[in-house]
Amino acid sequence: MYIDLRQFLHQPLTVGGRRIRGRLALAPMTYLGHVAFRELLSGFGGYGLLFSEMCSAKRLPRENAAASAFFRWRPQELPHLVCQIFGADPDVMAAAAVRVAQEGFFGVDINLGCSVSAICRQNCGAALLRQPAHAAAIVAAVRRAVSIPLFVKFRTGWQDDPAAAVDLARRFEDAGADALTFHPRVAPDRRARPPKWDYIRQVKAAVTIPVFGNGNVFDAEDCRRMIATTGCDGVAIGRMAIARPWIFAQIADGLRPGPEVFARVALEMVRLLEHHYDPVRALRRFKRWAQYFSANYPFGHTLYTRLINVDRLAAAAGCLREFFAGDPAPAARPNMNFMR
Asked: Crossing angle of helices 260-276/35-42, nearest 10°?
């Protein structure tokens, strides 16, 4: 099926009675999709929605946004920013969603996809997919508490069974979700195997609310193919956006940045981290980001090794300037071994 990709991506989409300006979204990623990175990304544009880092529902009602590591934003991004929350108690999740709504976010997103052991041990994230009724009860509690758009991010489940994913999607819609972001991998699989896009098609066919597909979209052709084969309403991009923050503008607007964009982005990332965070938090987030950025180069492990060993951001900036002084040529596609 032929799709005019740019025309499709610029079609507005209504979620929960509110209008989104485009159909590409930054997927939520802890330590990566933070306020500094989102500001960097906003300079390129091309997206319709941004998702925050994962925020603890227990802390959120009393969280000080000026001091928080995760619950942090710029006022100008609120009209297209969704705050993702995680937790296991419906009442606690509802209270967190109320705080999100009070702050003026576009929407709230329930994390049912994180399979990191530290989260699953708390019976949060993807662990809740083992308890479909309880997961749906959380969605229902949040729905009763707020009127802003309600998103749910989830995986296939803990077994490779598309019927289970379809059942979850229907439960979430019935509980009041306004949109779904579906990553078609089983929870234990951290990206060892390709996502099964046909499961997105099955989930989309089972519900009436918008569905954002997620998983292994690295360029415009991947995006076109996901939309054409699954019928999804939008596409959420994660890892590739971290490596190349201009990816949304490239796909949606035809941006063709030159090789110099890599140096500009890297040094701007240092500046924005210094602006938004204290030195310890800034350096920690820089090193997470450096892994993905280094994937852009054929011998990126050399760059990454140098960056991961710096003890302050000023030293990182020096490493980057020295690296780019050699006019390195980026690879056509990032090294996926870095992006796990």
From this structure: 140
